[in-house]
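Bit of a strange request maybe. I'm writing a small parser for structure token strings and I need a real example to test against, not something I typed by hand. Could someone generate the tokens for this chain?
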Amino acid sequence: KMSIKHVLVFAAVVQLARALHAPFELRSSPARALQSPSQFGMAKNVLSHGNVVNLATQRQELKALRGGGSTPLAGCVGSLIKNIVGSGVLALAGAVAAFSDEPAMIYPAIGIALVAGIMSAYCFALVGRTCAIAGAKTYREAWAKTVGDSTAWLPAATCTFQTLAASVCYSIIIGDLSRDLAATAGVRGVMGDRTTTLTLTMASVVLPLCMLRSFGFLQYTSLLGITGTAYTGFFMLLRYFQGAYLPPHGAFSKAVAQPPVFSKKGTSAIKALILVSTLTTNYLAHYNAPKFLTELENPTTARFNLLTYVSFLGAFVLSVAFMASGYLTFGGAAQGLILNNYAASDTLATFSRVGIAASIIFGFPLTFVGFRDNFLELIGLNQPSQGLKDALTIGGIIALTGVAMVVRDLGVVVSFFGALLGSAVIYVYPSIMFLAALKQGKKDVTVSALELYAQYGLIGAGTGLGALGAIVVILKTYTNILK
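Reply from user aminoacidic:
Good idea to test on real output. This should exercise your parser:
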């Protein structure tokens, strides 16, 4: 128990430092990270190109990458941590609760989070190496210059619909938080119902924001995300150490509809894939790897790797803080959106809901419009009229509102799309691009035999775990097979 507390305390310190020392903003939607068309060409026999691949065990060492930006390493680390850590951390405790209610299972969960973080960091660095080899500046351009043009739609569509999934998650969070805040304000009856509060918020706040012709002022609201996330992490840690929700004497133990549940239902190992899938969404930032590469000052391979692994370590610590504090507070009762577990009468929880809600609402337009514009481009409408954009915006917001009325479990959406789409963006596509780059022999790059074969392992593991994870989520949520 002491070791868990040590991890959580360290995480709180890291969060506060991040909120104070991450002034640089390098965010963009997955769809916006893809710019130009591509073609397809699968690398089938990399081993035959001896001039490209040296099977002796050695590290790849590239010269300073072409170009480079002016953002210092420390600034890029802060921005990348912020880019990685988003609303997905609010679903991690529920993902652990999906397969166990045993307190000791937090240790395997942390181990899974560590392995997933290491693999995600490696693949993020791999995208940067591929861009350096191919001379690419975007995720899509990296695919175009390595794999080819004929399947440019594949990574483009994947990242575009990953942005749609983020919009669905935002809509669910808005519905839950608006209902809870209405309850805290004493609103009852029809006006306090989730359907009503969701509809009013989406129609009166979110839609007008999405209809704006310019989102310039929204760049200044990014501090809300940092502050809201840091505060929420601190608040969750505080309530855990206080034992505020622990029956029978916790200050809020009688104020919640669903009290904490420990050691009643046991553990189901197969359902741990839900946590794996949720972590995939949680660590997803790979479409922005080329952007960080071009913004980094003096972007050598060593510096980009340092940026990558330090940032993912920070993201891992923060993820553990949210996951462990939420799970150890509520156990098997932890919900898909962990803030739903906290009492409406908990003032600190109310502040957290306000901060997260403001962050989500002001970040919604950037995410949704990124999906809208790139969807239009994906179907061949490169110069749509403003009227068409507005119509699609109105229709899209109505559709998202409807989906959020029906699908209320944030954890289900995060884990399903993490398995289905996130696995491809994080594990499968980077390895395919890297193998294709080696096959083309664009630079005299040497890699070890172990690393070479690891690419095929990542492709297989990413595909298999993604498909199996999506199936497990569906079976657990909509059938009695894994109940």
